[in-house]
Structure to design on (1492 residues):
């Protein structure tokens, strides 16, 4: 079943075509990798899907509905969540508050409930807190739930970003370089985590990554962008041996690939 | 260090809250509330100077009723809540018997109800809004109301200057200016003149060329600028630069030696109405001008003179009451039918408003000279 | 050339460095590796006195860097390619490089440095007039390295130069680093990509939660089983 | 009628060049330090007063008096920065703004205390000359102010964009720490920025004093506010933007007074401002950087 | 529910306290009133600036709009409506009418908040500040040109209906409303906008809605404060609502601590009492005042309270600490 269909998507900044005429599909429970040189337009694709940028042309169909033109918060509410290339946590808020904010629309009492402290308010608060604790527990962040987000080490910040995205109850999760700044071992742990997330939360995942050990291990299918265009698509084996991909992206010696 | 500063500040606050006014025996306390800082500080300072001088003169002569007068001046920064606080403070903590002050009408209208309800006399020298004295019988003033000057100048322009058309340039943010302008416009049209331009500015503006260019194009015979000298000076300068040659006129707000300094040539041939005339042979005025100039290094403006009179008026009331009891002072003031001050001789109507003549002054050869007198 | 002695850095309650010692000799490439949050960045920033140093000394030859202001440290001949590149986004590529030569007075030296940097990164020459903020991640990384090279610095501190870069670029950058080292410059390199780091380093320090847990020549460290497992995928 | 319109436009340009003159210093300090230097208007006032004493009490020739005022004011600017702003360099931006407001109050109140609030006539070293072009009137002082503000804009553009210290200033504005690591002494750069900004303000103060022939301790408040608005309108931090913003404000105010109504001039001027901002949310010359996420 | 009963009891106790304050020296009493009104202004601006992170300096405009409307209603329609309510004692009907007019004034400000907020809240940082400042000035110019409310002559003759009980009541309502909003899911949404608007949107928060909500709630209470102000001074004047007034409120909230409601109350206290406390210094008064501002900011750059709140909990812990300390001294 197709979860997401991207059709002829283009986006330009000034004279620069950051994404041009890009099409791809995404199937339920799949993990699709996007790779490509720096500045190829990968993050821009994320920004287009999540409504942060408006495409020049093209369609983005999510569960049968064209979501082009919707505001980011509306898209999130439809069930697409994302992380950012540079972590954007609510730094001065506690870890659990970060997660609870993401649940804002999932469990929601009316403003008047909060003003008059109605039962519904208490129910909502405790429900949010419970669910948030559950998610934090899954990511092993429960013990740090009352710390400021900015005081977490970098790796845990990235985890918290993913946890926060999951808290919006998405069916599609977009991860932008989750392994950046991690060493080999940490990246491999992340691979496991992502696979578990897919199974436990039943989400479909779109993944941008430069760590080949992550991409090649977890994605059954990969698309390769260069200058905003798709230059290759297929399973890891095929992509890795594609001469255009090697020339533009991988280089001759591909290190650290583990099977 | 940080801690020390913190403690110092806290100590300062607490200390000054509880520092009680020193109670000198045998003094009569009078409060003064003026905007000594803030946007109308110039007015406030002149007023404070005038009031202070009156008190000093009285004390030099041995005080009133054998007691020295103590004048406690509070600054209200031209903020109404500060004016209210100042009034309360003077009444409750300093226990003044009367207040001189409220430079603008809005301040007077704020202080008025407080004075009235606390049964303390308020005398204002400059608040010209008719509503000021309507607040209650403890409130007095020694200046004409807005309407009067506007009408005087309208008559003067039409009759003496034979102006058939006039332009008005009002400070839209000043109640004084608006009051004069409205009265002028009404009267001037009523007696057959025509207002060809009705322009405005905000107090403190510095560039008036837009309005003046517009006025110039309409070729009025007379331009009425009921503002304060600090605005009038640049207006006159710029008007002359733009080639407007007709006479300008205004009210007592023009009266200041600074006007001549800042708009020397430009003011030539202009007229304004005032309470007194500097070359009046009146000895009272002569000594006032001389003493004031000696004391403060500049000649008095109308505001200083008015507040000087307000204070004199109050002191005379105290003398007449024979006691520093506010109710008695009020009665004494109310019973005073006439008063002669540096801003002229006045009688009072039932609403404690003065009736007095206006002088029309002309600026001629870099000097202000008497032109004519207008009786109410 | 550089020696760090018993350095302690605390961020409020967080003890980021708890007594580390590092030596760098002239002409060497020294790699510093460790897990996230181990304190690698903190170590490099401490050399420029940008962290709350609680205790310890850092000597550059005879000079104690913990006693002089940051801008003077630069003038001793140390340059930094910081975490996150930190190019000046609203300045052009050329101006960024000129900023790198801020302390160089001599016009011909500046010109030679320009030529050297442009020969290493021809891409920067092409983009001379572009605003740095609009460069792609890899180009910004080149610019950050180029900027550090403009000052004739004897010691170069590099903080994860491969972060977020495409594999091809990572290879390019490391070959440039090797070239730079051949030009008699000393490198202190922080890197997550241990394979790459080991390929050019003479010696390696391994950090864990604010302490040095292992050090030695590259061969020694690379043959340690724990290291192999954690960093080299072996 | 046409004549009238032309005259009004000249009026607008001359008013605008005054706003521009003050806005330049504002925008430069903002551009480098991201600080809304609320006290800029008061520094301008100080400059005018120093000029007043230099030209009046010490009877210097105009050019010398101007330079003396600029120098002394620059020193005051540096002092203000060292005492009041420097300790807050790593504090939230709003705390710095509040301190700047405090400094603004302080300067005003000290001056009220020292010289009183009564407006003073500024010594007229340059007599006004009126030129007639057809029926349109221009004065020599308008021309002086216009040319000085254009000159200063070009000068600032040059300093900031083409000189080494200018590059250092911009580097400091974009990343203080990085600039330090490259050997920039940021204290010196910031002091220089303040000195330059204050000297500009002083030049503005002296020229405006000469032009309107009146100075007083509160003279900085309104022009300071308007100049700030002008700087924002043009794109805050952008030097030609300050100039443009100043002219637009000046011309808009004059045209509104002339052809709509002087009573609602300020309201219309602000409506224009808001409309422009809604169309160009970062000011006229501001780059609209969609934040890259 | 239990909490609500508790809150109502607290409110009643506070109102009784306020009633007693009327026996105070009228000078202190008046300063208390201004403190209360300023607290309402500060807390409401803090919602916008401190919690939502939107840099607004147009608060004086909202204060003026609400204040003038409720004052005009009392002056022009108050008597009529009191006559309609003649079946009850005037002392009661007067206050009921006052209450209703205040709310109408507040709602009017809130409405303006929505109208202004929807387009301008797209602007960021200093650009938003200028737009809100411009809006405040526009309101003032309009009032200057409105003769029904006296224009430049001010609007006198407003009956004095504000007293300490009313001020306490509204300050309390303001505090509780804001406090409860902030400590709910809606509040977290609001705070997340301040922390990172982009991320907030990515988490599904309708940022425009919440910004406008915060803006209009802030405006509502500013309008109420304006009404209380006018009905206390018995006079409104456009000069009371210049941008300097907005700046003063800004000073209060930054001094007290952005993001702290109790801090706002403290900030309001400091800036209300300080000028009074300094009256003894006459000429030097404002010099000392501005120096104090600067020094306070230098020693506490994040305000007196930072973003912490005073609560029963931490008062108790301070008391305990003090006890321990004095215990040691003994
Ligand atoms: N808001 C923007 N304004 C201008 N240019 C932009 C903007 N966002 C992206 N670009 C440009 O679009 C191109 C694609 O950028 P994008 O961030 O999508 O690259 P990427 O594939 O994610 O690269 P990387 O791997 O380095 O993250 C780049 O050249 C970038 O400079
Ligand atoms: N400014 C800061 N304030 C508080 N804590 C900090 C700060 N900077 C770093 N830390 C903490 O200090 C510790 C060491 O951080 P550092 O950035 O030096 O690690 P690192 O080894 O460079 O990690 P990474 O591989 O993620 O870059 C971490 O726990 C981090 O959370
Ligand atoms: C000093 C003046 C502005 C006072 C004015 N006469 C008034 O009634 O307000
Ligand atoms: Mg990217
Ligand atoms: Mg690091």
């Amino acid at each position: 079943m197709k979860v997401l269909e991207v059709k002829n998507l283009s986006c330009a900044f000034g004279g620069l075509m950051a994404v041009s005429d890009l099409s791809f599909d995404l199937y339920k429970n799949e993990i699709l990798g996007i790779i490509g040189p720096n500045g190829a337009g990968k993050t821009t694709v994320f920004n287009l899907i999540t409504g942060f940028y408006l495409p020049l042309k093209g369609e983005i169909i999510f569960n049968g509905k064209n979501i082009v033109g919707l505001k980011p918060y509306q898209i999130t509410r439809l069930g697409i969540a994302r992380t950012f290339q540079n972590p954007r946590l609510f730094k001065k808020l506690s870890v659990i508050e970060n997660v609870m904010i993401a649940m804002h629309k999932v469990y929601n009492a009316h403003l008047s409930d909060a003003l008059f402290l109605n039962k519904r308010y208490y129910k909502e608060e405790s429900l949010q807190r419970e669910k948030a604790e559950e998610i934090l527990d899954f990511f092993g962040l429960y013990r740090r739930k009352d710390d400021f987000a900015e005081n977490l080490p970098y790796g845990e910040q990235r985890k918290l970003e993913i946890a926060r995205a999951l808290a919006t109850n998405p069916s599609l999760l977009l991860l932008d370089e989750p392994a950046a700044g991690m060493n080999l071992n940490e990246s491999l742990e992340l691979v496991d985590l992502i696979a578990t997330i897919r199974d436990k939360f039943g989400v479909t995942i779109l993944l941008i990554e430069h760590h080949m050990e992550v991409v090649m291990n977890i994605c059954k299918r990969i698309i390769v962008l260069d200058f905003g265009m798709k230059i290759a698509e297929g399973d890891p084996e095929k992509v890795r041996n594609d001469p255009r991909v090697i020339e533009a992206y991988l280089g001759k010696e591909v290190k650290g690939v583990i099977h | 260090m940080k801690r020390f500063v913190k403690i110092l500040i806290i100590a300062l606050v607490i200390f000054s809250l509880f520092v009680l006014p020193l109670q000198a025996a045998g003094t009569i306390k009078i409060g003064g509330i003026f905007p000594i800082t803030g946007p109308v500080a110039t007015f406030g300072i002149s007023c404070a100077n005038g009031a202070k001088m009156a008190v000093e003169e009285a004390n030099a002569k041995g005080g009133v009723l054998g007691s020295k007068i103590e004048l406690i001046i509070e600054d209200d920064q031209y903020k109404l809540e500060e004016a209210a606080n100042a009034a309360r403070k003077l009444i409750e903590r300093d226990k003044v018997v009367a207040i001189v002050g409220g430079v603008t009408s809005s301040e007077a209208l704020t202080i008025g109800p407080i004075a009235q309800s606390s049964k303390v006399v308020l005398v204002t020298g400059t608040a010209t809004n008719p509503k000021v004295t309507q607040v209650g019988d403890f409130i007095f003033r020694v200046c004409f109301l807005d309407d009067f000057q506007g009408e005087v100048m309208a008559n003067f322009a039409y009759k003496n200057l034979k102006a058939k058309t006039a332009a008005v340039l009002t400070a839209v943010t000043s109640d004084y200016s608006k009051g004069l302008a409205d009265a002028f416009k009404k009267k001037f049209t009523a007696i057959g003149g025509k207002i060809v331009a009705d322009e405005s500015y905000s107090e403190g503006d510095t560039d008036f060329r837009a309005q003046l260019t517009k006025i110039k194009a309409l070729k009025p015979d007379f331009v009425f600028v009921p503002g304060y000298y600090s605005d009038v000076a640049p207006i006159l300068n710029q008007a002359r630069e733009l080639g407007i040659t007709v006479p300008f006129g205004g009210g007592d707000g023009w009266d200041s030696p600074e006007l001549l300094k800042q708009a020397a040539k430009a003011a030539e041939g202009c007229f304004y109405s005032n309470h007194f005339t500097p070359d009046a042979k009146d000895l009272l005025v002569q000594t006032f001008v001389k003493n004031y100039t000696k004391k403060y290094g500049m000649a008095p403006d109308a505001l200083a003179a008015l507040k000087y009179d307000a204070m004199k008026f109050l002191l005379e009331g105290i003398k007449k009451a024979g006691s520093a009891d506010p109710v008695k002072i009020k009665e004494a003031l109310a019973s005073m039918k006439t008063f002669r001050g540096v801003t002229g001789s006045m009688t009072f109507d039932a609403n404690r408003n003065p009736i007095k003549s206006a002088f029309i002054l002309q600026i001629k050869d870099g000097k202000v000279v008497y032109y004519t007198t207008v009786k109410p | 050339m550089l020696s760090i002695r018993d350095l302690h850095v605390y961020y409020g309650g967080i003890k980021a460095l708890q007594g580390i010692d590092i030596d760098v000799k002239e002409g060497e490439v020294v790699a510093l590796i460790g897990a996230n949050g181990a304190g690698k960045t903190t170590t490099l920033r401490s050399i420029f006195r940008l962290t709350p140093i609680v205790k310890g000394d850092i000597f550059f030859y005879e000079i104690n860097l913990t006693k002089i202001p940051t801008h003077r440290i630069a003038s001793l001949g140390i340059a930094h390619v910081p975490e996150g590149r930190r190019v000046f986004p609203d300045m052009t590529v050329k101006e960024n490089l000129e900023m790198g030569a801020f302390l160089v007075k001599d016009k011909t030296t500046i010109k030679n440095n320009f030529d050297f940097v442009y020969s290493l990164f021809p891409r920067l020459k092409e983009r001379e007039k572009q605003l740095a903020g609009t460069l792609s991640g890899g180009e910004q990384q080149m610019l950050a390295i180029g900027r550090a090279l403009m000052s004739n610095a004897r010691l170069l501190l590099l903080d994860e130069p491969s972060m977020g870069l495409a594999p091809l670029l990572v290879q390019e950058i490391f070959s440039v680093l090797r070239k730079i080292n051949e030009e008699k410059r000393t490198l202190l390199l922080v890197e997550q990509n241990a394979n790459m780091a080991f390929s050019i380093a003479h010696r390696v320090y391994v950090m864990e939660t604010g302490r040095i847990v292992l050090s030695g020549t590259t061969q020694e460290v690379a043959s340690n089983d724990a290291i192999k497992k954690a960093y080299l995928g072996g | 009628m046409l004549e009238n319109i032309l005259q009004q436009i000249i009026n607008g340009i001359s008013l605008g060049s005054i706003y521009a003159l003050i806005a330049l210093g504002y925008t430069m300090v903002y551009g480098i330090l991201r600080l809304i230097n609320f006290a800029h208007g008061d520094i301008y006032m100080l400059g005018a007063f120093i000029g007043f004493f230099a030209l009046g009490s010490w009877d210097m020739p105009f050019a010398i008096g101007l330079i003396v005022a600029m120098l002394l004011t620059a020193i005051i600017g540096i002092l203000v920065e060292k005492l009041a702003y420097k300790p807050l360099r790593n504090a939230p931006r709003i705390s710095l703004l509040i301190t700047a407001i405090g400094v603004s109050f302080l300067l005003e109140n000290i001056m009220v205390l020292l010289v009183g609030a009564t407006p003073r006539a500024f010594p007229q070293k340059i007599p006004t000359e009126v030129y007639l072009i057809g029926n349109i009137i221009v004065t020599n002082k308008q021309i002086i102010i216009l040319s000085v503000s254009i000159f200063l804009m070009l000068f600032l553009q040059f300093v900031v964009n083409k000189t080494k210290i200018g590059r250092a200033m911009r580097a400091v504005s974009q990343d203080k720490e990085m600039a330090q690591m490259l050997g920039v002494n940021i204290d010196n750069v910031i002091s220089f920025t303040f000195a330059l900004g204050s000297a500009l303000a002083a030049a503005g103060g002296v020229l405006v004093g000469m032009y309107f022939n009146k100075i007083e301790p509160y003279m900085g408040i309104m022009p300071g506010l308007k100049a700030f608005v002008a700087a924002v309108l043009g794109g805050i931090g952008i030097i030609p933007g300050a100039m443009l913003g100043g002219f637009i404000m000046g011309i808009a105010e004059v045209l509104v007074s002339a052809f709509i109504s002087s009573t609602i001039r300020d309201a219309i001027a602000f409506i224009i401002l808001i409309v422009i901002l809604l169309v160009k949310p970062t000011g006229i010359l501001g780059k609209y950087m969609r934040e890259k996420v | 529910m239990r909490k609500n009963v508790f809150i109502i009891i607290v409110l009643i106790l506070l109102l009784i306290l306020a009633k007693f304050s009327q026996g105070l020296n009228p000078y202190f009493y008046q300063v208390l009133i201004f403190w209360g009104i300023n607290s309402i202004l500060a807390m409401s601006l803090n919602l916008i600036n401190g919690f939502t992170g939107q840099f607004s300096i147009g608060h004086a405009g909202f204060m003026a709009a609400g204040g003038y409307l409720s004052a005009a209603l009392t002056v022009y329609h108050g008597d009529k409506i009191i006559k309609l309510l003649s079946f009850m004692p005037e002392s009661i009907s007067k206050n009921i009418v006052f209450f209703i007019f205040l709310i109408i004034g507040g709602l009017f400000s809130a409405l303006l908040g929505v109208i202004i907020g929807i387009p301008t809240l797209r602007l960021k940082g200093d650009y938003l500040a200028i737009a809100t400042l411009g809006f405040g000035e526009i309101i003032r110019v309009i009032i200057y040109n409105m003769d029904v409310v006296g224009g430049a002559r001010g609007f006198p003759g407003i009956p004095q209906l504000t007293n300490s009980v009313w001020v306490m009541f509204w300050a309390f309502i303001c505090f509780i409303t804001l406090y409860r909003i902030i400590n709910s899911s809606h509040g977290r949404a609001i705070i997340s906008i301040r922390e990172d608007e982009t991320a907030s949107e990515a988490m599904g928060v309708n940022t425009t809605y919440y910004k406008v909500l915060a803006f209009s709630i802030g405006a509502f209470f500013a309008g109420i404060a304006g009404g209380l102000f006018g009905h206390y001074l018995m006079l409104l004047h456009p000069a009371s609502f210049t941008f300097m007034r907005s700046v003063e409120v800004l000073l209060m909230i930054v001094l007290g601590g952005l993001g702290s409601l109790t801090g706002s109350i403290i900030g309001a206290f400091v800036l209300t009492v300080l000028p009074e406390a300094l009256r003894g210094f006459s000429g030097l008064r404002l010099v000392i005042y501005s120096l104090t501002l600067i020094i306070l900011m230098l020693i506490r750059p994040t305000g007196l309270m930072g973003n912490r709140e005073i609560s029963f909990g931490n008062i108790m812990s301070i008391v305990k600490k003090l006890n321990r300390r004095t215990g040691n001294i003994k």
